[in-house]
Amino acid sequence: MLKVLVVAAESVPFVKTGGLADVIGSLPKALKSQEIDVRVILPKYEDIPTSLKEQMEPVAQLTVPVSWRQQYCGIEQLEYQGVPFYFVDNEYYFKRSGLYGHYDDAERYAYFCRAVLESLPSLNFKPDVIHCHDWHSGMVSVFLKAFYGDNSFYQDIKTLFTIHNLGYQGVFAKEIVPDILGLDQSYFTPDKLEFNDGVNFMKGGMVYSDFITTVSKTYAEEIRYPYFGEKLEGFLQARRGDLKGIVNGIDYDLHNPAADRHIFANYNIKTIHLKQENKVKLQQRLGLPVRRDIPILAIISRLVAPKGLDLIAHILDELLGHEDVQLVVLGTGEEKFQQMFQNAAWQYPSKVSANIFFDETLAHQIYAGSDIFLMPSLYEPCGIGQLIALRYGTLPVVRETGGLKDTVLSYSKYTGEGNGFTFANYNAHDMLFTIKRALGLFYDKPLWNKIVINAMNSDFSWKKSAKEYIDLYEKLTSR
């Protein structure tokens, strides 16, 4: 049986700041269902709920070198949905509020990466593949080559590095090379860890891993060119033969309108008329006029510029002033965008509900009760929101970038194919034109329901993507 260790900084249900946690919470479960011995290792953060910490059992104690330091490491274990999760316990590094943004993040995650490797013999688990995710785990591949190449236990272990967002690379001062990483200066060169006179953890993960993936096929193409490449496009272009895009899935048990306990009325493809009940109840909950005939547009997002909110800012008054719509917003982010939606709710109280917070139950209710989901991102490595919207029959309006391009096919009246609506240029009026196209079709109920069925028939469960990962693991181990 193929053995895989997944290394990451966050995972639902333990701790989450973004989509990475959703992937780590659901991909291993899909791998396990396809007969892979998969295990996950995370830091044991202070922010993990006490109810989950109380279920953890200690399985190992060891000492981990961090350059010249010798640091304590405890390994605790908890099984979740049939998958063993290990937690690296060190209060000096992880008993503090928040996951990232601390002054010593370089040391914290260097320690974590070294602890992952040091702990394996104690766990009596030798993986065939170590699958690392994002910059926090980038040093695993570096350390494996630098410190463990002569150790028979570690020989033949392959490494895979997945980029979830190239915009976050983990770049630190060059002084950490000897003092924290414990490496000599031969590692601080442009073809290895050096990046703009600093040390780049993500680059290290990509240079030293046997293969690189990212979270959609289009993003794998985009990052090889300057606009999306974040100054690593030359390296990615050079390694294009070892770079593959595998689109993320979502947990179809968690996001299932037929069984979702969060929503007001369960429905499926055969009972999509019950989606209307969710609409009515959502309008009631949010204090909007109850109208079945009006299209509800939804935004569930971090309220930041890369999500395309500057495009929405340009056309918001035109949309709300001229179209018979309701707009529901859920999320937090930059003050200017929070204020924009709050002002719109004040100016158009019968049209806009601005919920400047995050609530999981309300998110599910919005996915189920809305008609159109707006996601006009500047860039989007994969995107989860559009996948959930499709699952709930809420038609996405997206820009053709990254995973949005790979998952949303614009409806064609000629072929009858399509599960949403797309536009190519990062332009506010191209977006508005596309929204108006969707609104025009909304009132043709037989046609609209046909597109809704197309959306709900789209399969973005992990089943297909997990199989792609397994094929890749097998290819790596046979090299």
Q: How does this model look, in words?
A:
- With 479 residues, this protein is an alpha/beta fold.
- The protein folds into two domains: 3-249 and 463-477, Glycogen Phosphorylase B (Rossmann fold), CATH 3.40.50; 269-459, Glycogen Phosphorylase B (Rossmann fold).
- It contains 19 helices and 18 strands.
- It has helices at 19-33, 50-53, 91-94, 105-123, 139-147, 176-179, 201-208, 217-222, 226-229, 233-238, 275-286, 309-322, 335-347, 360-369, 385-391, 402-407, 428-442, 445-457, 462-477, and strands at residues 3-7, 37-43, 57-66, 69-80, 83-89, 129-133, 158-163, 171-173, 194-195, 198-200, 211-214, 243-245, 296-300, 326-330, 352-355, 372-375, 395-399, 421-423.
- A nine-stranded mixed beta sheet has the order 3-4-5-2-1-6-7-11-12, sandwiched between helices. Strands 15-14-13-16-17-18 form a six-stranded parallel beta sheet, sandwiched between helices. Strands 8-10-9 form a three-stranded antiparallel beta sheet.
Core attributes:
Rossmann fold, 9-stranded mixed beta sheet, 6-stranded parallel beta sheet, 39% helix, elongated
> Can you give the helix content as a percent range?
25-40%
Low-pLDDT segments = none
General form: elongated
Helical stretch tally: 19
| CATH fold topology of the largest domain | Rossmann fold
